[in-house]
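Please predict the structure of the following assembly.
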Amino acid sequence: MVVYVEGVGMTKIDRHYDYSLKDLAANAAFAAIEQAGGVDGIDYLVFSSSLSSLQDNQLDTASYLATSLGLRGIKALNVEAGEASGLAAISVAKSLLESHQADKVLVIGAEKLNEFVSSKVYKQLQMLYDGDTKSFYNIGFAGDAAILMRLYMDTYNVDRELMSYWPALMHSNAKENPYAMLNFAIKPDKVAKSQILADPITLLDSYPLGDGAAAIVLSNKDMSSSPLAKISAIESSTGYGSIELSEDPLLFDSLSEAFRRISNIADTSNLDFIEIHDSFTITAMIILETLGLANRGKAAELVSTGYFSPGGKGPLANPSGGLKARGHPLGATGVYQIAESSLQVANKFPGVKANNAKKGLVVSLNGLGSSSYVALVEGV
Amino acid sequence: MDLSISRFWRKKEIIYKLNGAKCKSCGKVHYPPKNACPYCGSRELELVELPRRGKLISYTTIYAIPEGARHQSPIYYGLIDLGVTKITAELTDIVNANSLKKDMEVEATLRKTQEDRDAGLIYYVLKFRPVLVQK
Amino acid sequence: MATPKAGIHGWGVYIPIYRLPLSDIAKIWGWHPDQYKGLAVESKAIAGPDEDSLTMGYEAAYNAIKRSKIEPKKISAIFFGTESKPYAVKPSATIIGEALGITPFTMASDLEFACRAASEGMRSLIGMAASGLIDYGLAIGSDTAQANPGDVLEFTAASGAAAFVIGRTSNASAIIEDSVTFVTDTPDFWRRASQPYPLHGEGFTGEPAYFYHIENAVKALLERNGLKPSDFDYAIFHQPNGKFPVKVGQDLGFNMDQMKDGLVTPMIGNTYNASALMGLARVLDKAKPGQKILLAPFGSGAGSDAYLITVTDEVENRKPLAPTVEDYLNRKVLIDYASYAKSRSIIHVIK
């Protein structure tokens, strides 16, 4: 079943020291509600956030948020799936609509990664990885991805410089996106020279720590008036989420399965654009290869040829600037991706546009694929 | 106190001794033991002590250090092939980052990993270091 | 009554990889550049930032158990001798025991008698094994060796560990034929509760303490066994520096040939509870069946033990089963005072 995006709202991703999580959520939600034609008919709030309950010392945030937004009385629940929370929340919202538990759902994703000093946030972000082993070590948020990046470069004999084209493309795209945190261009050679976070991952290979919120109003066909876009399918799968368990860590097994599932129920060919989860350069390369958009070991080279750039032969990759440059406020990211993609197919995205975009694929995952979510966004 | 006392205590068999699980159904070994085999779903698992020596498959030197570990910075971290299975672990006694090499032989040794500030518990885990004596 | 005898079944050591040149200490604290030359030590071993007496003791014990060729579960007593306990209250011995697969039917405690606590553990185990109370026990000496920064003690205070599996005489690598302990109240060196570093009486640590106690213990042992220094192939004494053990040995009538293999402090400094015991481990790494060893640990406060040890044929089978003292001595990397200060928590940080 198809659900419709009636309205979207986003805050610029930034260090929002002066706004609380609820302030950011309200900012995005009110914009989405206004675009959707008001609060009438909204009967459910699905709230997505990863670290906020820990950071704000707050449980049942969705309910408190509903009342805080003037929506007291509607139904509300939290969804948490680490970095994939946003798309997981939208998947839940879609299920609520399909099962007629809801007619119109407000999905809000909000996160603040600048609420604490960086060392504390690195420790909190370590929770994205398998706590059975990792939580007793001091590996921070980039350790596993760094091991994966070296493994990738060693296995396929890809050099560091070739990997740097992805961040440069992301910055180039983000430069046009008013909601992006890092809206400035960089040259590829700058990536390797930037500060090393976890060798070989540099600062410019990694997402920035940003605060932000995004919201969308979803409805089913009966309630739909003048939607921006439709979400024709969402699928997901769990996976190893671990380099050591996976027999082939250079593919994300959960994404492979989620993509197979969505391809069974929807036409995933002829994509005009993709919005993928490039938390690190390496994550982007593996996603492109898992989706079959690049041959194994060849994603970096394909990126460097401009295949995924505006005007390139392939689907336009992350016109928003991606997690890398738009930013990655964990639980909000999936909602940003759907909001941006909805604007793309409505030809209303205020940044890099995919020409006559009719169809885009959104990919969100947690860590190294403990879960993967994929969604197909199409024009109406 | 910031860290859980009982959570670490429950894991000591696994963390101190490198106890993994072998699936009686598919024969595959994983670490640390899960409630069912991550490969085939069988719940018929037996504890097996993993080899304490292995080879580095991949590695990293971490400078983005989480709270409480500044004195151990940089953190060296590796993906290790133990033959029967792979594990990830912190590496120690690494003299400099350039000494890390693929296929380098490493062995397990007990080290401190985290301390609960000044007055809480000290947590010990197995880390891996370059082998002392080549076999 | 026959003297109770026990066997050394396995021995093992641990020395951290890091070495601090003493010249660095002299430079930082404004000592005359030749100040430490009389100590006969050039650099000292320093535990890394993720090490403490417990982790070092674990590895020494792991090596000792390997050499003993017994299942860890057969060990039913662990004595951990240290003056740098990670916890003031909570036994390190249980953590080591658990990590080595020894517990739970195990006597386990941390002993304190300055540098001879581990030796007290060994003497206890001799009696326990000889009486049949236990089959095997583990004695570990391990220290990160604190010294007040800037104090002369800082030149030698080093990190290291040694461990022995002690049991009945059958199938042992060496037999402890006899042992003597000599203690008095002698305040040569102490650390008050809750204080980070020990203080000492400088020259008072020498004659009234170190020399007096070791000489009395050794003489008593020789006398009651009807032995003279020349009957021994090796003599090993506690090694607070490179000079004292040589002097006490010569005063007692031993020569350098007997002492040189048991001297470890000149290479790595004084590892406190592991000091003389590491010397014994190094001697066992080299000793031949039938050879006789004199061992005399010392601890401030003060006391000394003297041991008469005879090496058996079995020693040759055990040597290759774990890394030798030489393996650890050869594994080294020089660090500077700042790295040492960081890893030994001399720099105050807010946690």
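Chains C and A do not touch (no CB pair under 8 Å). DSSP finds twelve helices and 15 strands in chain C.
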